[in-house]
Amino acid sequence: MRRASIKDIARIAGVSVATVSYVLNKKEGQRISEDTKKKIFEIAETINYVPNRIARSLQNNRTKLLGLIVADISNDFYSSIARHLEDKAIKLGYTLIIGSSDENAQKFSKLIELFSQQQVDGMIVAPVAGSEDILQKLMDKNYPLVTIDRYLKGVNIPGVLLNNREIAENTTSFLVEKDFEQIIYVGYDTKLPHLLDRQYGFETTIAESGKNIRTKNILVGLENITLEIQTKLEEALGKNPKNTALYFSSNKLAVAGLAYLVQNNVNVPEQVSVLAFDETEAYKLFPAEITYIKQPLEEMADEAVKFLDSQINQYSSKTKKITLSGELIIKKSIK
Amino acid sequence: MRRASIKDIARIAGVSVATVSYVLNKKEGQRISEDTKKKIFEIAETINYVPNRIARSLQNNRTKLLGLIVADISNDFYSSIARHLEDKAIKLGYTLIIGSSDENAQKFSKLIELFSQQQVDGMIVAPVAGSEDILQKLMDKNYPLVTIDRYLKGVNIPGVLLNNREIAENTTSFLVEKDFEQIIYVGYDTKLPHLLDRQYGFETTIAESGKNIRTKNILVGLENITLEIQTKLEEALGKNPKNTALYFSSNKLAVAGLAYLVQNNVNVPEQVSVLAFDETEAYKLFPAEITYIKQPLEEMADEAVKFLDSQINQYSSKTKKITLSGELIIKKSIK
DNA sequence: CTGAAAGCGCTTACAG
DNA sequence: CTGAAAGCGCTTACAG
């Protein structure tokens, strides 16, 4: 069934398509008689007219589509931020189209290609390792682009970021003052700068504390996180750990690690204290509610969309990076 | 910066746009010299040509966009299914555009409107209460449409569903055989048929068991789930519950309920046994890993996209509903 | 083997 | 107050 077009309305109303277009878009300037307006609106209503944005897009070079590329939309962190992005985008008249990269530069690149073909007005991306060139190309074309959560070395892309290094330092200091014998950092074996910032923040703070704290990094790959963490934690903690703290650098890692702790009846915080990056509902089900670093997701989303919108509409803006602060939410998991 | 078009390639190559179009789309039938082909591909490469799908869409009435409306993309269940839908959609050449309805018929309706304007080729929706008319209209226009997770009374929309009633009956039987004194159903105060199916399945199975089991429904609204569940559970369980089972009809409800149990040191399964609908990573952090009903999300997503694709391409199909089976994953939370 | 031309459904500068 | 017409970037039936 062919869908009603502006032409149909024009024919029925006995006016030109131009007139219909003016009326439906409520253009001022053009003065059109109230009678004609009323007639046109009525006809549009009765024939169930839905404007074809595709046609409009072709004309004015704006699709009102925003591309969002995350690592994995089924990850709590990204689905939460996606939700906030969606809300903000809708407010500004945009719709979100989404894709998951799985930390794979090739998939990432295909999504970028796909989204450009779909003529999205701009993209919000969590860039993966190895996507520098692809993104640089996009920048060279002046394609509106904002990174979230992450940034890349060697390419200066507008982005909304967490103060990773700083918050890692502050929260590590917080642990250092508790006089643990051992503090273990659980992170990814990665080249992503924002994660390395967390790691370096942790390492330097421990080193500079002047205290005699045993420390260790457990770094895992992307595959089989759960299994890898469990074996490495087992090795690191031994049978009867005490006076130890675990510093998880993401919610995924924390969930995997906490599952190990609960299964092995490790007492938190009596034996092992826990601090984790990112929020997840799951923390509430653990016997000791988890102390975590909360990222201001809503604010990040707001800033990212606003930032992108300003690029799209060429509001001049010299800003390149927006850095927001994490917050330590202290619960029962640290003694 | 204007983006390169087919016209640019034609001008540079000294051929017509028609020829360029044929070559780039690898149309058979038209025989074009290898030389010309090669030249065109090279030029496309060097001027960084990206086809404008919008223009193509206008021509052939296909955007390769699929609309997805869920209740809330930040909910584990929906973000997981979204991920599977994304994967399947990409395989078939579609991109997903997403929206969250928040169980609000008006928001839902706005999203439908928005997506139609964007000319999506079809929609996959988790319909909300009160959206019958909107969806019926869409059906009347022959708009390709598939519901997931839910269905509505009084309007016959193609859909992919779980065998809610049946799996509720089977799993309730499983509990009944354990001879609990009390079994409490924790669900939503809702009109959504798929949730009522779960509730009725539970209720009738208990009633028909012939056993003398105390039972009770805790039904909560959508606002303040956590608070409402906690107060109602407190009331229902008392200080020292025993030989009791809780039947949670969704992951959200389960998470809220389990948070209450863990905070109040209720022993699972010694005092209270737990069974829940849906999967979530969170279950792993609870002291007793949770027995849950696993929905075949990947299969659902596969079926939904295939189903929609067949509607879009008019492969005749008389199918109206596809029902898939849930599976009880038995863990430690039931004594 | 290749091109001229119409058309998809809109918008908009211009004319009257 | 309203319309004729060009054009956005493609596709495709048709002609040669």
TrEMBL record, chains A, B:
Which Gene3D superfamilies does the annotation name?
3.40.50.2300, lambda repressor-like DNA-binding domains (1.10.260.40)
One Pfam family here: LacI
Which InterPro entries has this protein been placed in? Answer: HTH_LacI, LacI/GalR-like_sensor, Lambda_DNA-bd_dom_sf, Peripla_BP_I
Q: Keywords for this entry?
A: DNA-binding, Transcription, Transcription regulation
HTH lacI-type domain boundaries: 4-60
Protein name (database record): LacI family transcriptional regulator
Species of the source: Chryseobacterium luquanense
Taxonomic placement: Bacteria, Pseudomonadati, Bacteroidota, Flavobacteriia, Flavobacteriales
